[in-house]
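Usage

Read records sequentially. Each one opens with the input sequence:
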Amino acid sequence: MESNHPKTQPKYKRILLKLSGEALMGSQGYGVDPIMADRIAEEISELHAIGVQVAATVGGGNIVRGISVSEAGMDRVSGDYMGMLATVINALALQNALENRGVFTRVQSAIEMKEVAEPFIRRRAIRHLEKGRLVIFAAGTGNPYFSTDTAAALRAMEICAEAIFKATKVDGIYDSDPVLNPSAKKLESLTYKEVLAKGLRVMDTTAVTLCMENKLPILVFNLLQRGNIKNAVLGLKVGSVVAS
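and closes with the structure output:
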């Protein structure tokens, strides 16, 4: 029997999964929905079961967005640190959901808080992945003015991930907002330069540029469609791809 069937063998051996804080919110208007956290954990555990090494980053928009509170009059640096702390809360929630499903998980924070998370140490993170543990990177880069998109791109390169998997609420990249424009066209394959030239909101400019300079593919897909994460890892046609 053929053992390398494309539907059973992963195309990627090590990935970084970029989740938004809103993904954990589910149907709630705020915070973490344990049911949604468990659903995400269930899909991630399927990757773990087929031997894929998974690292993840999670945003904090379900709790606080640094840039939003700064626009409302708060100091930008303080707002960004608040946002970083929100990502730690989300990382702990996701860790709990994963470990309830038997996936050994480590949270590494760019801001030291040893009582709840390990400090980010690149070699330790890679070793965790090699030992079959899932690693969640929290607190962004640890620096204000940098988004969780940039943190995801940076961490992906540091751990030698083969791709960034960006989970969203839409099924790929469109030439305009499909919520506002029903005739928006889905773009299944783009180059980094096309994303930057067209101003598409795939990831922020810094993150896309980092990926372009290091030839790191970005896969954008709908998190709400069951099985999408696994299908994308298996190399099936899911969402949109940004590459050279």
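Summary fields computed downstream for this record:
- Residues 1-5 have pLDDT under 50 and may be disordered.
- The chain is about 40% helix and 20% strand.
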